[in-house]
């Protein structure tokens, strides 16, 4: 309930900050946006784990009230302000397996399944995205995030600077980075109980039109990890970089 209250309060503030005259775009059951494939990279912060690289579909598109925004999918439920109140889910890459020698004695951390509500407010000042998730997986913790995205057009090149903050509850953070007393005895790592974490995020996405319909997509993001994460004996980095490079077809 606290997560939902925080989301409602933030969304209301975004609406008041935006253009009062603006309204959500009318719903049309026609596919619009970018559909293709991309190579995704995630810098692993867990001791001994290699960085993750994978090729997966790339989707930044709408079909009626259904939408996909790279790793976030959902349904636009109700008009609110300059957007919609949305039912959202996130494809997370935060889980990890204790299948290497440096992590012997630890148990696997299952990938979270974040589900919740959110809103994307498109204003004349840029886009504001707010989401409140509950992990339907093992941690049962909360994940809150707020992101601002601007747009800069330079001919066929569009740049999207991003500034955001991510808040993970103690349950969410501790499940991924904590060490239980039993794991401490089995692994030799000191027991660690992680608290809630707040993480600033800075990113830049870019689209370049190769033709009228074929688009080159790129994104780079960096997170500055909270001490609740970096103080864990399992974590070896203070920042985490993610990104993708892809090719998509733009439906109009």
Structure notes:
- The protein has 252 residues and is mainly β.
- The protein has one domain: Outer membrane phospholipase (ompla), Chain C (Beta Barrel).
- The protein is built from four helices and 13 strands.
- It has helices spanning 2-17, 170-177, 181-187, 227-230, and strands at 31-42, 52-63, 66-69, 72-80, 83-90, 114-123, 126-135, 142-149, 152-154, 157-168, 197-209, 214-224, 239-251.
- Strands 1-2-3-4-5-6-7-8-10-11-12-13 form a twelve-stranded antiparallel beta barrel.
- β3 (66-69) and β4 form a beta hairpin.
- Mean pLDDT is 92; it is low at 7-12 and 14-21.
List keywords for this structure.
about 250 residues, mainly beta, Outer membrane phospholipase (ompla), Chain C, twelve-stranded antiparallel β-barrel, 4 helices, 13 strands, about 50% strand
Quick recap:
This protein is mostly beta strands and 252 residues long. The chain has 4 helices and 13 strands.
Give me the side-by-side strand order of the main sheet: 1-2-3-4-5-6-7-8-10-11-12-13
Query: On the 0-100 scale, what is the average pLDDT?
Result: 92
CATH architecture: Beta Barrel
Instruction: Count every beta strand, where a strand is a DSSP E run of 2 or more residues.
Output: 13
Structural class: mainly beta
**CATH topology assignment:** Outer membrane phospholipase (ompla), Chain C
Distance from N terminus to C terminus (CA atoms, Å) equals: 39 Å
Question: What's the helix count?
Answer: 4
Give the fraction of residues assigned to helices: 10-25%
Poorly predicted runs of 5 or more residues: 7-12, 14-21
